Amino acid sequence: MGADPAVRVTIPTAWAEIAGALLYERLGPFQELGEGERRHLIFYPFRHGAGFVEDEEILAPLPEELRALIFLERVLVPGGWEDSWKIHFKPIVIRHLAVRPPWEPPVPHVETELVLTPGLAFGTGLHPTTRGILLLLQDGEARGPLVDVGTGSGILALAGHGLGFAPIRAVDNDPIAVEAARANAGNHSAAIEVQCHELEDVPLEWFWAATVLANITLEPVSALLERLKGLEIRRLLVAGILSGEQEFLLEGRAREARLRIASRLYEHEWVAFDLRPQSCAAGEKRE
């Protein structure tokens, strides 16, 4: 089959999904290989029309603190990768919900199943931040309106649809993510309104009495908390927060927004939070 020139990005596992999404637009789809603390993201820029991309251009979209943690290599890999990369994406079951790629058969004995093609935007269901919110969404709480802020592929909004939330709105400031989320909603016949907005442009009335999802990093979460001050939301489920310093900062900013931590989930270095209005009964659950 010959060989394809590729760019291999070796990166800490915790950053793999973020880096993959940031580099996708410049370098195209990628394979993700490796276990444990390091992952290899293998891109094929020549196959996708990008041609030769300088190291500086590859690094430019990444946060400065991440650039020092990655290692770039230019390698030749066997042809036929279009089919071989699929073996790395298998169905994953998260409590009563399954996420699978379209080439895998249906998963038996689950209540909700999402069928998504990996790689186009955030959210294959494999990352700890995605899993955290998917677990919190299935805790038996009352349904109702749902808003997914930073929707990516739309996986969280789609899960909400499968679990009976309505109406559902999703927003992202990346047109590629919005396109992916709309396509995924259409493929699932899900009535989800997906809009391309910056956070400050999201209509405030969307949030009233809603469950709000935010699988995003600390800075936009902090901005979201500012926007939610004084609004009567049902709950705010947050992921994308690292344990330790970021976790403590989030706690303080939640208190300023008059939200309490009802529960939090830990997986590796990531924390997912269930934030509720302070008027709700007290008591925090940790897992």
Strand-helix topology:
Elements: E1 3-12, H1 16-27, E2 30-33, E3 38-43, H2 55-59, H3 64-67, E4 71-78, H4 81-84, E5 92-94, E6 97-100, E7 112-115, H5 128-137, E8 146-149, H6 155-163, E9 168-172, H7 175-187, E10 192-196, E11 211-215, H8 218-228, E12 235-242, H9 245-256, E13 259-267, E14 270-277, E15 285-286
What's the alpha carbon Rg, rounded to whole Å? 19 Å
Assign a percent range to the helix content: 25-40%
Span of the ends, CA to CA: 49 Å
What fraction strand? 25-35%
- How do the strands line up in the largest sheet? 10-9-8-11-12-14-13-15
Overall number of strands: 15
The CATH class of the largest domain: Alpha Beta
CATH topology of the largest domain: Rossmann fold
Low-confidence stretches: 120-124
CATH superfamily of the largest domain: Vaccinia Virus protein VP39
What structural class results from the helix and strand content?
A: alpha/beta
Helix count, DSSP H or I runs of 4 or more residues: 9
Mean pLDDT: 85
Summary of the model, kept short:
With 287 residues, the chain is α/β, with parallel strands linked by helices. It contains 9 helices and 15 strands. It folds into 2 domains: 3-86, Alpha-Beta Plaits (2-Layer Sandwich); 89-286, 3-Layer(aba) Sandwich (Rossmann fold).
